[in-house]
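Collaborator request, handled under Task 6.
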Amino acid sequence: MPEPENSSNSTKRVAILVDTSTTWGREVIAGVHRYSREHVGWQLFVEPRGLEQRQWLPNAWKGDGVIARVGFIELAKRLKTLKLPVVNVSAITLPKVNFPRVVSDQVAASKLAAEHLLARGFRNFAYFSLLGLEYVAEHQQAFLDTLRRQGHRCEVFAVQPQLGAEPDWNLDMKRLGKWLRCLPKPLAIFTWNSGSAREIIYASMQAGLAVPEQVAVLSGSDDDLFCVVTPVSISAVKLSCEQIGYRAAAELDGMMSKREVTPPEEVLIPPLGVVERRSTDTLAIDDAAMVKALRFIRENPARAMTVNDIASKAGLCRRAMELRFKYLLGRSPAAEIRRVRIDHAIHLLQHTNLSVATVAERSGFSSSEYMASVFRAQLATTPLHFRK
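Structure tokens returned to the collaborator:
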């Protein structure tokens, strides 16, 4: 293939065939851009794309290298015909496709998830799986293996995906809910992504199960949008997506400059940690009265409530409930009310343009001044500065 006119001693031209519709894709692209800005100053070619779109380069595109989510045989074949350096950032394995690859360490991510849930006191576990996807199977097995080494079993519920790694929107919720009801509680469920986590939350609610008090849900990947557009925001493993893009760019740079004649076949990037949201915001509590009390508080953050109101909902006298809160949570019912209200206010400040006064009202604070005093005492800042 003839060398592009502008590729010898001039700025390199690099195509990024990665979706822009998810946090994962955008952060990968940001990582490539950061490497380019810091080291080489490439011309980057990227367009708005959906996750499952077939991402082709324009015909006769003249460039020097490609970073791509190679998830389809057709794309792999097209890239091979270019005879350009290619780095793959997809966890999908395809037959006879051996581009150098930079991907998340899914085994480390599953191990992190298991250890996080164990640390919160859970002893009953499940995995919601997607059939026919090798990378999901690896993710699932790593989670099961970590739990097995700690002496715990893990139940598995598997469904056929509709497109890529997304569950069918017409999933049989009654069947899933029946399975959830049969499992011992409190239960912690881990799954591949936010779409799968969403289905678990909907099925739990339909089956009359409280999330997270009875069913805690953890996604294997984080998304700024999809993890919060559910009735209960979804906790997730935070993958180091920007570092994937940065390292992929470094590998491609070496290949294009001939510094790496034989680049590594695969580079694994460990996860960053767990982003905690409401779906795991609980301790594993096998106490029906406490579940009722916590559910009442968390579902009604704006409601004026007293400790006596909560005790009545839980079917306990005030003193008995206060003792259970102290023993199981290490805090009083009043402290739990404040904590839930602060979390709700934080969510509204982060994800809406509501005024501070409206946020205070919707979060159960008697005034914006009182909310500000609570923020200063517990977060060492004001609501306005927190939003900024």
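The cover message to the collaborator said: "The first helix runs from residue 23 to 40. Confidence is low (pLDDT under 50) at residues 1-8. Please let us know whether this matches your experimental observations."
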